[in-house]
Design goal:
The complex is a heterodimer. Chain A starts with 8 loop residues before the first strand and ends in a 6-residue tail after the last helix. Chain A has a 5-stranded mixed sheet. A 4-stranded antiparallel sheet of chain A has the order 9-8-10-11. Chain A has a two-stranded antiparallel ribbon with strand order 1-2. Chain A contains 4 helices and 11 strands; from the N terminus they run E-E-E-E-E-E-H-E-H-E-E-H-E-E-H. Chain A is α+β, with helices and mostly antiparallel strands. Chain A has one domain: Ribosomal Protein S5, domain 2 (2-Layer Sandwich). Chain B is an alpha+beta fold. Chain B has a single domain, classed as GHMP Kinase, N-terminal domain (Ribosomal Protein S5, domain 2, 2-Layer Sandwich), CATH 3.30.230.70. Chain B has 5 helices and 12 strands. In chain B, helix 2 packs across helix 3. The chains are: A alpha+beta, B alpha+beta. Chains A and B meet through helix 1, strand 11 and helix 4 of A and helix 2, strand 12 and helix 5 of B.
Chain lengths: ~240, ~260
C-alpha cells in the first residue's frame, strides 16, 4: 500500500535522534504487583507495559487440561486509553493473534512438563502504546515468569527491526512503524539465540531480511542484559518481613 | 488432549529422521494442489475451491460499497475473515472465530495487503464511497496446512473476482463491469520443523508432530511471515524456510494464475 512520504532518517539520525542500530531507553521493574505470583513493569521508549503471572494453578475448564504438561495461557490487552484514538475495550482480532503467538513463545521456554494438568496464566496489559508492544509485552512477561519462580530453560527477550526510508533499523517507534516499509518483531531464547516468535509484514528481500533479523537478535541480546540486571536487583533488594 | 495424535507423533517423527514422510513425499514437495476458480460463481463476485491433498477450502469474494478508512480516503477496503466450519474437523466447534481462525485470517490478510495485490486506488467511487472487498475463507476439510490452502484460495478467488455494476447509488447484483484490479500474486508457503528437519506443506499428522512452523508469503520479495507452534527455530532454519518458500511459490503461482 502506498504510504505518504516522510523523511524518517536525516543525516544518519532518526526522528528521536537515535542511530539506526540504537534501542530506545528501557527500564524494568520486578515484582510490582501484590496479588500476582510474579509481575514486572517495563517502560520502553513511550511504551508502558505491565505483566502478571498467576500459577501454576488449577486449570479450568477441565477439558483444557493436559496430563503430560501444564498449559500456558496468555492474554494481551491494550487499554482503551493506551492509544491516541480510543481503543474499544475487549479482545479484537489483533489482540487475539498476539496473545496466541506470545503464549506459544513463552511455552517454548517454560518447563511445562513439571506441572501436569496445571495452568499458568500470563496477563499483559499495555497501558501506553508506542509501537513494538508485543515485544515489550513478551519482555515483561518473561521477567514476570522468572519473578514467579517458575522454572524456565531460558529467558525470552524480544525486539523488532524494520525498514524505514530504505534503511534497516532497530526498534521502530510509532512514526517509523506507521510510515516505514517493513516491521519484523522477533523473540529469542536469550543464550542460544533460537527464535521463539517471528512475525513480519511489509516488503523485504532475503538479504534485507537477514540483516534485519540479525539486528533484531542483537537488540534482543541487549534487552536480555537489562532483564537480567533487573532480576538480580530484585533478588538483592529483597526484604524479610515480620 | 488428543491421545491418537499423541501416539502418532513418534511414528511421524521417526520417519522424518530417516528422511521419509508418511505419504512418500520429498521434504520440499507439496501435496497435489487443485484450484477451481468460480466454484460458486452464480452468486459470489469471485470464488475458488482449493484442495491441497485432503485439505479443502472454499473462498468467496463479496463486493460491497462502503466508507473508506479516514487515513486513506481514496482507497478501497479489504477484509479477510476465516471460518473453521465444524464439519471440517472433530476439534472445530460452531461459534465465533477462535484464536486459530483469527490467526489464519490475519496471516492470509497480511500476505495480500502488504504485497499491494489489490490495487485499492482503483476501488474509489466518489467522496466517502469506495468498494469494500470481503474475502471469506471457509475451511471445509482440515487435513493440515490450512494457511497455505486458504492463502492460495484467497488470491485465486481475488483473481476470479469482478466488480459489480453500480448505478444511481445502487449495486446491480448479477451484473459486472470489470475484473477486480489485482497487481501481483502473493503465495504463502508453510514449512514445519520436525526432528530438526524442515519440510514443506505439513499434513495433519505432521502438524501434530511438528515443533514449530513458519509461513512465508512471497511475491518478488517477502511480504509476510508468521511463526507458529511452541518450538524454536535457528537462523539457518529460518533462511532455509525462506528459500523453500520462494522456490515452491513459483509452481503454485503458475497454477493460481492459470485457469
Amino acid at each position: 500500500m502506498e504510504k505518504p512520504d516522510m523523511e524518517l532518517i536525516k543525516d544518519g539520525k532518526r526522528l528521536d535522534g537515535r542511530r539506526p542500530d540504537e534501542l530506545r531507553e528501557i527500564k524494568i521493574e520486578v515484582g510490582v504487583l501484590k496479588r500476582a505470583t510474579g509481575s514486572a513493569y517495563v517502560e520502553w521508549g513511550k511504551n508502558k507495559v505491565l505483566a502478571a503471572v498467576y500459577g501454576p494453578r488449577e486449570l479450568h475448564p477441565k477439558f483444557l487440561r493436559n496430563p503430560t504438561k501444564a498449559v500456558l495461557r496468555c492474554i494481551y490487552n491494550l487499554a482503551p486509553f493506551s492509544v491516541e484514538d480510543r481503543k474499544r475495550p475487549g479482545p479484537d482480532r489483533r489482540s487475539v493473534e498476539i496473545s496466541k503467538v506470545s503464549a506459544e513463545a513463552l511455552s517454548s521456554v517454560v518447563m511445562l512438563e513439571r506441572y501436569p494438568n496445571a495452568g499458568i496464566d500470563v496477563y499483559i496489559e499495555i497501558l501506553q502504546a508506542d509501537a513494538g508492544t508485543r515485544c515489550v509485552g513478551l519482555t515483561a512477561a518473561s521477567v514476570a515468569l522468572a519473578d514467579a519462580g517458575i522454572p524456565m530453560k531460558d529467558i525470552v527477550a524480544a525486539c523488532a527491526a524494520g525498514k524505514i526510508s530504505g534503511e534497516i533499523v532497530l526498534d521502530l517507534m510509532k512514526e517509523e512503524d506507521n510510515y516505514g516499509e517493513s516491521d519484523l518483531p522477533i523473540a529469542v531464547m536469550s543464550r542460544k539465540k533460537d527464535v521463539v516468535l517471528l512475525q513480519m509484514d511489509g516488503k523485504l528481500t532475503r538479504e534485507e531480511f537477514k540483516k534485519a533479523y540479525e539486528l533484531a537478535v542483537n537488540g534482543a541480546t541487549q534487552v536480555y542484559e537489562i532483564q537480567k540486571a533487573a532480576l538480580l536487583k530484585s533478588v538483592n533488594d529483597v526484604k524479610i518481613e515480620g | 488432549m488428543d491421545i491418537e495424535a499423541y501416539l502418532r507423533r513418534d511414528y511421524v517423527t521417526n520417519l522424518i529422521k530417516e528422511g521419509k514422510r508418511l505419504d512418500n513425499r520429498k521434504f520440499d514437495e507439496y501435496r497435489k494442489l487443485e484450484i477451481n476458480k468460480g466454484y460458486v460463481g452464480e452468486k459470489a463476485d469471485g470464488s475458488a475451491y482449493v484442495s491441497l491433498g485432503d485439505t479443502k477450502v472454499l473462498v468467496g469474494i463479496s463486493m460491497d460499497v462502503g466508507e473508506p478508512y479516514p487515513d486513506a480516503p481514496t482507497s478501497g477496503v479489504m477484509t479477510v475473515n476465516a471460518e473453521l466450519r465444524p464439519m471440517a474437523s472433530p476439534h472445530f466447534e460452531a461459534g465465533p472465530p477462535g484464536e486459530e481462525a483469527t490467526e489464519l485470517a490475519r496471516v492470509v490478510d497480511r500476505g495480500i495487503r502488504e504485497s499491494g495485490a489489490i490495487d485499492t486506488e482503483k476501488l474509489f467511487i466518489e467522496e466517502d464511497k469506495v468498494w469494500v472487498v470481503f474475502v471469506d475463507i471457509h475451511v471445509l476439510d482440515h487435513y493440515g496446512n490450512m494457511i497455505d490452502a486458504s492463502g492460495i484460495g484467497a488470491i485465486a478467488a481475488l483473481l476470479d473476482a469482478k466488480i459489480p455494476k453500480y448505478e444511481d447509488n445502487k449495486i446491480i447484483r448479477g451484473e459486472h463491469t470489470v475484473k477486480l484490479p489485482v497487481t501481483c500474486t502473493p503465495i504463502p508457503c508453510t514449512t514445519a520443523k520436525i526432528a530438526d528437519c524442515v519440510i514443506v506443506d505439513p499434513d495433519m499428522d505432521e502438524e501434530y508432530a511438528m515443533d514449530s512452523r513458519l509461513t512465508v508469503a512471497t511475491t518478488d520479495t517477502i511480504n509476510a511471515m508468521q511463526k507458529g507452534g511452541q518450538g524454536t527455530l535457528r537462523e539457518e532454519e529460518v533462511l532455509d524456510a525462506i528459500d523453500l518458500s520462494f522456490k515452491c511459490a513459483k509452481d503454485i503461482r503458475r497454477l493460481v494464475e492459470g485457469n
